């Protein structure tokens, strides 16, 4: 697998995270094979792509995402904070991102929820994935184990992954109980032994969020199967494509 590059919220170093601009910029790089995005629900049940529960950091709006309708969310500017070149970028719907990504790049879709914050999120997301026939092009991930259980209740065949920022001793049991085939783990908690155990048990491992060359080299030397989630796909390319650009361009060139 050669440490596949996952663009965190799109190419979020150069463009506003979780926007169409960020998605397009990531897709344009032939070495980016996955994009990680975050999904919540508008108050009228539309899956939208945004990370924070609050609108304040990445838009000119205020308050919680869940308290706004899709129409209200569409009136906000989600790009100005990143620079004048991105003024007018909107919070995209999941539909927009799926349509743009289909057949071109795979998506790690994080379900941003906890407790009963978003009743119906899992079903709404799965319905949109099914509409575009992208079941084999996505993995649904979450910190919320109950959200992952609900996904499997709706579609046992869909790939799911647990997100963790620790190293629990019962990790393999939890993954098995949740029927997860994917683990998204903070990079500092990975070591060679854990990685080897996970991969030997059929678990795909993604380390987050690594933006420097030394961190990427550490993961690469640990195991070539570790996917690297980064805000800096450009640093990934400069670090891990060294002396072998032709190989990567040929093997992983994406469809137009």
UniProtKB/TrEMBL annotation:
<dbReference type="GO" id="GO:0008081">
    <property type="term" value="F:phosphoric diester hydrolase activity"/>
</dbReference>
<dbReference type="InterPro" id="IPR030395">
    <property type="entry name" value="GP_PDE_dom"/>
</dbReference>
<dbReference type="Pfam" id="PF03009">
    <property type="entry name" value="GDPD"/>
</dbReference>
<protein>
    <submittedName>
        <fullName>Glycerophosphodiester phosphodiesterase</fullName>
    </submittedName>
</protein>
<dbReference type="GO" id="GO:0006629">
    <property type="term" value="P:lipid metabolic process"/>
</dbReference>
<feature type="domain" description="GP-PDE">
    <location>
        <begin position="3"/>
        <end position="240"/>
    </location>
</feature>
<dbReference type="InterPro" id="IPR017946">
    <property type="entry name" value="PLC-like_Pdiesterase_TIM-brl"/>
</dbReference>
